[in-house]
Amino acid sequence: MQKNRQKRALAIHDISCIGRCSITVALPILSAAGINTGVLPTAVLSTHTGGFSGYTYRDLTEDLAPIAAHWKSLGLSFDALYSGFLGSYQQIDRIAELFRAFRTKDNLILVDPVMGDNGAFYAVYSERMAQEMRKLCAMADLIVPNCTEAAFLLDRPYHVPCTEAETRELLLALTELGAPCVVLTGVSLQAGRLGAACYDKRIDRFVYTDAPYVEGFFHGTGDLFSSALLAALLNDFSLEKALSVAVRYTHRCIEYTVEEGQEARFGPCFERATPFLLELLQK
């Protein structure tokens, strides 16, 4: 591999035209981190589905395979394939085909199994999505669920682990889905703090990182976190260090949102915090 070669990632997410999430978060974060980033839109929405009603929704399932086939004809390759919000459960098989078509011995497949939060599915999802999402998790090198999505994937009651033992057990169970590395977000092992835990089955290593808890619910933080995590990994950070980068950056985004009095439903103020992310990636 050529030294200092610019890496290329593919972000497979919806386009929410208003609301900082999905492609409108993944593309600028990865690009700012020096990653050549292509996108595969799974749906187009006037806004994201959290905190808004009356939004428009266009499913792009029929476009996915032709786009991927064109890329294959061009001989394109990707250092990372990164999936997030999918337009429907029917898209799972299309994305699985894309993973098979573009997988190499060196690239990274990161699946953020976006399905819900706070114990409930997002408006356009159902139990069928969880059943199908397990297929993508089995193909991934790394999955990044929140506690709600972990419960759906494992067909368990929703529960936020509050001890290290509970967190370890949950992470181990998630690796049984097939991905050797799991990052679980929204974990609090200490009062007044919130963070993420990861387990790397390949080296049997557990790591937890947190930051001060900020009161409120901020739509889009999962996409911020996963995009920052991937940005650090593609800049050759270890999983442990990438976890720290993602937690610290996400926390700073939330701080800016609160300081500026912005409506949480429009997503965290990640633009103001991007210089901080670049500082973290220089360390």
The main sheet comes to: 9 strands, mixed
- Cα distance, first to last residue? 23 Å
Tell me the number of strands: 11
Number of helices: 9
Low-confidence runs (pLDDT<50, min 5 residues)?
A: none
Q: Determine Rg (CA atoms, Å).
A: 17 Å
Give the % helix.
40-55%
Order of helices and strands: EHEEHEHEEEHEHHEEEHHH
Give the strand content: 15-25%
Which features does this protein show?
nine-stranded mixed beta sheet, two-stranded antiparallel ribbon, alpha/beta, about 40% helix, globular, about 280 residues, about 20% strand
Task: Give structural notes.
The protein contains nine helices and eleven strands. A hairpin with a 4-residue loop joins strand 10 (193-200) and strand 11. 41% of the residues lie in helices and 22% in strands. With 283 residues, it is an alpha/beta fold. The model has no long low-confidence stretch (mean pLDDT 94).
Short structural summary:
The chain has 283 residues and is α/β, with parallel strands linked by helices. It contains nine helices and eleven strands.
Topology:
Blueprint: E1 8-18, H1 23-32, E2 36-47, E3 57-59, H2 61-73, E4 80-83, H3 91-102, E5 108-111, E6 116-117, E7 120-121, H4 127-139, E8 142-143, H5 147-154, H6 164-175, E9 181-187, E10 193-200, E11 205-212, H7 221-234, H8 239-259, H9 270-281
Parallel strand pairs: 1-2, 1-4, 4-5, 5-8, 8-9
Antiparallel strand pairs: 2-3, 6-7, 9-10, 10-11
